[in-house]
Each structure stands twice: as structure tokens, then as C-alpha cells.
Amino acid sequence: MRQGQGNRVSTVLGRRLGGELNKLRTAAGKTQAQAAQAISATSTKIVKMESGWVPMRDPDIRVLCEFYGVTDAQVVQPLLDLARLDRERRKAKGWWTELPRVGTLAEYVAMEEVATQIRTWQLALVPGLLQTADYMRALGVTSDWSHPDEIELLVTTRTKRQARLRGEKPLEFHAVLWEAALRQQVGGADVMRGQLEHLLDMARLPHVHVQVLPFRAGAHHAAAGAFNVLSFAEAGALDVGYSEGVASNVWAEGTEASAVFTHAFERVSRASLAPHDSLTLIDAISKGM
Q1: pTM for this structure?
Q2: Are residues 106 and 67 in the same domain?
Q3: Which residues contact 95 (CB under 8 A, 6 or more apart)?
Q4: Comparing 197 with 94, which gets the higher pLDDT?
């Protein structure tokens, strides 16, 4: 989330929506001044809308789409859905806002709360939504969260996030892991064995899909680093890519940028073992510890 003057806030969802409207306006050959006139607003408001600084009203989106010559419900409805999620996101006073030292993770957790699907590629670690408490604690010891209370805060935060995999409308979660993430003994053999058994249990849920890219697959398309693809409508529609680095986190908000992440995930998924074979490998590694 980017802070502006006063109460203005630029959110990831707002920028994603604004970028789509900007693209539609440009394709229609309209100026920001003309768009502003269509909704009886100022050009400044259009600038703010297209930059994600203000929440958008459904009537404004419908009028702008019609002004741009876009009437296909399959195009307009995802924009309305995204606007609704952004409004809810801005008003939400989620549990994550009260936690100290969450920092930039707060924006990701807020996005995770409203996403309908998450696809994740991991090279070295089990995804946070599938981690056990002991595995989390072992990771906490190696981080700069060295105090026991801080480590327990990390465990509490991730455990709360895992609630997205439960309930009436659980998150659709698809994880592809490099084999190294299964063999690296985070916390030792006992902790890792428990983690792999938990991974097997979670993978049996109908909305959780786990694949493994085995060592024998050799070089692959996503060797550069781990990343997530968050979806907020139908799969592939209005996706957002996210990559967490050592010094900074990267959001891929535009259509072209997010498509790079989506394409990379699809390629590494195709190169991986089928879900059944993946679980067989996970089970074998667990029993071998």
C-alpha cells in the first residue's frame, strides 16, 4: 500500500483496476478530460482513479466502460468485482493491522484475505499456508525475529492466515514445490517429518493441490526465485503477481507483468509430477527421515 497526502491511499487492487480502465480508455482514443466529462467529474479524479488512489463506484465504472465502447459483461463484471473487493479492502480493519513488525507483509495478507485463488512456486520452503507451528518456529530462529515472543507472534500470524484454507468458501490453493523444499531439514528430521505429514494431509483437501518438481527434471523455467500469483475473479482474470525478495517485495499489477508470473507458474506446473505422484514422493521422503 502506498500512502499519499491526507487520507488518500493507493492499493494494489486499486492500481490493478485503474490500470485496466486506463488501458480501455487508451484503446478507445479518449482523453482523461473526456472521461471526466462522461462521469461529471474532474480530470484530477480520473487521474486518481487510474492510479488507484481512490475507491471506485460501480456507476462510474459502468459509464466509463460504455463511453469506451466496452459492453461485454465478461469484461465489465470482473472490473466491478475488483472494485468491490478494493472497497472492502480499504474499509477492512483486519487482525493483521494490529500486529507489530508486520510491515510490508500487511498488504500481502490483506490481499490474501480477499483472493479467490493463489498459485505459489517455492524453491526452498514449504508455503506459509501449509506450514506447521514447529516448522514456523524453526524458521523464526534463523530470522531476525530472535526473541521467543517475536517468534510466537510469527506463528500466530501465519496460523491465522491458514484460516483461509478452511470455512465455507475456502481459498483455492495450488502449490508447486521444488524437491529441495522437501528435503531441507528445517528444524531437524522430526520437525520435517511432521511437516511433510501435514503437507500430505492438506493436499488431500479438494481445494488444495500440491505438486513437486523433482531434481531429475533438471533446469527449469522458474529457477530465478519463488513467487505467488493471486486471483480475484475467475482464474487468469485480473491476476496479480507477487515476489518477495531480500531487500524488497515486487507486485506485478499490470496485465502484461502478471502474465509473466502466470506463464512461469504454468510451465513449472507442467514440468512437475502429477499430484498423485507428488504425494507418493512426499510420503517416501517423509518415511526416509
Answers
A1: 0.80
A2: no
A3: 160
A4: 197
